Amino acid sequence: MPLLPIRLFPDPVLRVECPEVTVFDDDLRQLAKDMVATMHAAPGVGLAAPQVGVSTRLAVVDVSGGEDASAIHVLVNPRIVEASGEELDSEGCLSIPDFTERVKRPTQIQVHAQALDGSSVELEAADFFARAICHEIDHLDGVLFVDHLRGLRRERARRFLKRMSRLQQAQEQAREQNRERAPQSQTDAAAGA
Length: 193
Fold this sequence. Notes:
By secondary structure, the protein is of the alpha+beta class. The chain has helices at about 25-40, 125-140, 150-190; strands at about 45-50, 60, 75-85, 85-95, 95-105, 110-115, 120-125. The protein has 3 helices and 7 strands. The strands form 2 sheets. It has a 5-stranded antiparallel beta sheet with strand order 1-2-3-6-7, sandwiched between helices. A two-stranded antiparallel sheet has the order 4-5.
């Protein structure tokens, strides 16, 4: 199972509201397998399709961190149908590395989703498991955990994301310059031969 590159903020795919999955085929199953492998390798406890550049309503969650194969949940077209309780706790995101902040989430949720074969799935989740599912469903709606922040926490996140965006742009410019230099270097080498 190949590991997929994780898209980082400010990649526009992270802000897309994903369309529902309508075709349940081998490609979808392979994407789910690759996402699970990528999530475990990162390491993370959840991963949504947009985080690997695919705009579709697919998420994987494993709060065991890969320790318990039965804890892996593949959710196609998930939606929260009921939520209760409230807890403020720390969150991070594989698409926003090195940044965590406290986010308010429900402590109990009921989720309707589909399995990889298209069959209906109903799931109840509590505490950290509920938080992880909420986080991944947000990704499918183009929402990042930092969007839930207010006041000084939001300002801290805004400054961090601005720095991250500038760093991403600088890295992309450097890659572009290297690509432009590579053909010239090959031409120079061929001329000298």
